[in-house]
Each structure stands twice: as C-alpha cells, then as structure tokens.
Amino acid sequence: MNATTVVTDFPSEILEDVISVAGIVPLTTVDFPDRLALVVFTQGCPWRCGYCHNARLRPIGQPTSWRWQQVCDLLNKRHGFLEAVVFSGGEPTLQCGLATAMQTVRRKGFLVGLHTAGIYPKRLSELLPCLDWVGLDIKAPLDKRYAQLTGDNESAAKVLASLRLIQSARIPFQLRTTVGPGALSEPEFEELKWQLRHLNAPQPVRQEVHPV
C-alpha cells in the first residue's frame, strides 16, 4: 500500500460518530508489528470474559471525551510520523461504521490493523479488503470451554470461522492468547497450541492476565 498520500478534506458532518470511540493510545510500537501506530478503542462487546482488562468498554453509549472527527484531525497532524491505525476495543467489529472508518484511514495513507475476538465472522469477511494486519484473540481450546469463558454457546464456531477467513485472505495476522487466573491454565494453553497446529495456524503469542 502507498502510505504517502494525505487526505484532509473530509467534512466533519460525514466523519462525526462514524464509530463510538472510547479512547485512543496515540503512539504504540507493539499493537501493529514493526509499525508506529495509533490505537482507536471502540465501545461495545457482547462477550463477558472474566479477566477482561477493558471491561469498562463493554457498554455502548457511555460518555467519552473522544469523537471520530477528533481522531481524524489528530491523524492529519501526525502524518509522516505514524504509519498505521489499529482498531481495538471492546469488539470493534460491533461498530456498523467500522468499514467507513477504515476506508477513511486508508485514504489518509495509513496502514490499517484490527484487534478482534472473531465474534462476527460475516462482518470480518466484509472488512478484510480494508486490512493490512489482524490480531485475533484465541481465548480457549475450540470446544465447550469457549462458551464457559465467553458466555456465548456459539463462540468456538465463530472464532474458528474467523480464523479460516483470515487464513484464506492471506494477509499478515497474529494469534494472541491470555494465560492465567480466570483465563487459560497452562495445560489448556498447551492443548490449544496442539489444536492450532492441526489447523495449520501459527502458534499464539502468550499474554498474561493483568489485574483489573
């Protein structure tokens, strides 16, 4: 992708409230591999993972000091320094305007990344043409334990479908798994890695539970 074209002439009435922005990280070196990125956190997530360190982002419509137009204004100022924008959450694919937001970011000349739990495979399939990188959370072995952790009886099937979509799209991606109290045990993590090998998927990056 050509990351040199700057687009700054988007009317505020078009950009305002395209997505519900909960907050941002203005600069990160770890959320999009090998790129300087800004992270946009969106509101809303239908799952109820007990160890979630962003549980405050689950409700949609909570007061926030950030609007989408402000994010776009910041990107205009940081062009030539930042290389990528990562949409995270919450679960960003819950946002109906996410594709529009991603297209705006791409037109501004930035790479686009997504952090997702794979909750909405159909929506993910529609977003893949906009993406340069995906970080997919794999929370548990792909069986009934997924439902026990998320509260969604179909969660394992949804994540497997999302993984297959990402593999088929042939874009760079990373799997991430949280290990520790309230999340995966060490034996479960080893079992998950075994499952992923048999799915021809990369081994997950281990993340530790952070106290909430």
Order of helices and strands: HEEHEHEHEHHEHE
Q: What does the oligomeric state look like here?
A: single chain
Mean pLDDT: 87
Q: What is the CATH level 1 assignment?
A: Alpha Beta
**Which strand order does the major sheet show?**
1-2-3-4-5-6-7
Largest sheet: 7 strands, mixed
Approximate strand percentage? 15-25%
Total helical segments: 7
CATH homologous superfamily identity: Aldolase class I
Helical percentage: 25-40%
Rg, alpha carbons: 17 Å
Low-confidence stretches: 1-15
Under the CATH scheme, the architecture is: Alpha-Beta Barrel
| CATH fold call | TIM Barrel
What is the topology?
Blueprint: H1 12-15, E1 21-28, E2 37-42, H2 68-77, E3 84-88, H3 98-107, E4 111-116, H4 121-127, E5 133-137, H5 144-150, H6 155-169, E6 173-179, H7 186-198, E7 205-208
Parallel strand pairs: 2-3, 3-4, 4-5, 5-6, 6-7
Antiparallel strand pairs: 1-2
Helix pairs in contact: 4-6
General description of the model:
This protein has 212 residues and is α/β, with parallel strands linked by helices. It has a single domain, classed as Alpha-Beta Barrel (TIM Barrel), CATH 3.20.20.70. Helix content is 31%, strand content 19%. The chain contains seven helices and seven strands. Strands 1-2-3-4-5-6-7 form a seven-stranded mixed beta sheet. Helix 3 links the parallel strand 3 and strand 4. Helix 4 packs parallel to helix 6. The longest helix has 15 residues. It is globular, with a radius of gyration of 17 Å.
